[in-house]
Design goal:
two-stranded antiparallel ribbon, globular
Length: 281
């Protein structure tokens, strides 16, 4: 649990420079965690660090500027923390990005990078940091997925599939890790008021009136983690939606969503403008 592992090292937050990752950093700092903040933007990390130190004077906060989608980056991060004798007691795998559009219209290298960051980096970091947690019989891993991981999502096919992987992987790892005192939990936010849509592109899923704030998502997530949960869908309306989704064949959902997107976008070709960029998911 978060509170119980608080004295067992640092909380490492990936994708910490924006949105949900930044909010995890702020709320964990308020709980007294020393932090390792990881993202591509050094300037944003340093601004966040300065802001947190000004508010919480006695907290040790380290910044690591790194693109976790790059080959070897997760191992490099682990080596850096090991070399500095920074024991990680809580790993927040939050870094990720999405792209909206017809599958064939989105650059395949971009889609490969999405898989590398959303899936491969998350798995490698979990593997690297879980081993010492197992030895200590203490620690936790919190993986950020999405409600789209529960359904096939036309025009967001690869992103949704990566989040389905994170959901399945995390639920399985929870059962393995709890046997030796390590908690693993997966978080499924719905649409959240972050810069995700600014970077991934305006999409048919972007409805500000139905979005949670990053603060709400993180508060719900940490409460669930405190109680030893294996997963949480944040937001009451999202939970109701997922209950309804469970009653409908996935092929129907894909067909309904596809039709709605095509209708809203007028022409399928218009979806090609929804291109993705790296952003905390």
């Amino acid at each position: 649990m978060v509170q119980k592992t608080q004295q067992n090292g640092y909380a490492l937050v990936t994708g910490a420079s924006y949105g949900i990752g930044e909010e995890f950093a702020r709320q964990l700092a308020a709980r007294g965690w020393p932090l390792i903040l990881v993202a591509r933007s050094q300037d944003r990390l340093e601004r966040l660090r300065a802001s947190l130190i000004a508010e919480y004077l006695d907290i040790d906060i380290r910044c690591v500027t790194l693109d976790l989608a790059s080959p070897g980056a997760p191992a490099e991060l682990f080596q850096k923390t090991q070399a500095a004798n920074l024991e990680v007691g809580l790993l927040i795998n939050n870094a990720g990005f999405g792209a909206f559009g017809e599958f064939i219209s989105i650059d395949r290298q971009r889609q490969r990078q999405m898989v590398d960051l959303n899936v491969a980096a998350l798995v490698e970091l979990s593997h690297l940091y879980l081993a010492p947690m197992k030895q200590r019989a203490a620690g936790g891993i919190l993986n950020v997925a999405s409600i789209v991981g529960f359904i096939p999502l036309p025009y967001c096919a690869v992103y949704a599939a990566t989040k389905a992987f994170v959901r399945s992987f995390s639920e399985a790892l929870h059962e393995e890790a709890r046997q030796y005192g390590v908690q693993v939990m997966v978080v499924h936010p719905g649409s959240t008021k972050t810069n995700f849509f600014e970077v991934a592109g305006t999409s048919p899923f972007n409805d500000p009136s139905r979005m949670q704030t990053a603060g709400q998502v993180v508060r719900e997530s940490l409460r669930a983690f405190d109680h030893g949960r294996s997963s949480i869908v944040t937001g009451a309306s999202n939970r109701l939606l997922m209950m309804a989704v469970a009653l409908v064949p996935l092929s129907w959902i894909a067909a309904i969503v596809g039709r709605q997107i095509r209708r809203k976008s007028k022409r399928v070709e218009n979806l090609s403008r929804y291109r993705g960029g790296t952003v905390a998911s």
